[in-house]
# Entry
Amino acid sequence: MVRRIVVAVLLLSGTAVPSTVQADEVVVREVLAGARAPGGATGPFVHTAFYPDTVEAKRGDVVRWTFPGSYGWHTVSFGSLPERVFRDDEYPGHVAFDEPWLFGHELGDESKACGRGSYWNEPDQPACVLDEEAIGGQLSSSLFDRFFSIPDPDSTFSAVVDLEPGSYPFFCKIHPDMVGELKVVPDSEEVSNPTPEEIDAAILADQAEAERLRARLNDVDSAWDPAAEEWVVQVGGSTGRVDIHEFMPVSLPVDAGEHVRFEGGTHDPSSVAFPADAQGGFYALGSCDAQVCAPGPVNTSGVPWGMTGWAFPWACDVDDRSGGLPGVPFSYVPARVAERTQPAGVRRGCPVGALPEMLLSAYMGRPNRSPGDVVVPGAVHMSGWMSPEDTPDWFAKLPDGSRVLHRFDAEFPVAGTYAFACLNHEFMRGTIVVG
# Structure
């Protein structure tokens, strides 16, 4: 069970935060979960690192992780890795994120709610107690995101350290490379953490490395693979500390009949969708906002959701899995769910007893190939989610046992300009120009 303790802390703003803050005689150690790209750019860069990577603290200190409102999403999680992040949904042909993965388990039970500040106009939660029991139960923040963190982009997760001296790893459930370490030092030793200036310098250095990688991958001349005699488009790229959510090269000239290989470049999956009017984002098949959940239409057209609206829909997941309703999304069966959410009320943007979830259309999670991988005007050719071949199973495996793709192939026998898009990241767009 996650225990709670009330700790007064100071609210901070800015790119970097002090490594130590004194508040009511409680020492607060600060960590950024990700970072704002210098200059305030919202894409294509996502910093997939904690700043600092290692934070030192003593027993009784509070560690506070701040999501700086940048593009992307992160968690702060202690304990074992999830078994998987995707599950089959009751609605046919769809895949959903597993709710305990998406949200910290403490958010499913008001008596255990802790650690989260500024969550959809709710009061700040007391700091969690980070002890051996909490780590064994996988103490985790809920999702930090530019959407979920409304109205306060600088949302926080806090925990009081109640551990013996030693090293305790933490990680992000969305970015397998994003790991950190809490080092609990004995009372007899001094604590040493980076200064705000050192943190700013680390962010700038990571950004500069990502910009160099982006420039190299956008070089059209280097996109030709002479050994395979085919073109290569990177579906995103990563330095290990910064993800680049962009097709690289963003525009590729090829001759009719030539082969193009798309390669997953970030562990945070992206996708390739022809034609490009498939949209990525939220809010379809019903929607939730800070006040209410509205049921949406059921897709009976036989047309992929990505072709008719947002391909990354939003729903309310019933938190009470008893009574034969395991993970039924609110937006599809409002009559059945209403019976379990009466009396009416709203909590975290959903009816009482429900939590928000994200549901993926089958065309987001699984490939939909045109015959022979041949793309011609009007052909629907979608990769589903893509990530590198070394993506861990817990993030890459779909409910049917298959893995998300690490490569996707296409040929273009007919001259023309073919626009494509990522269903996951709304600003990822590219073109293949066939001469």
Observations:
- The two ends are 63 Å apart (CA to CA).
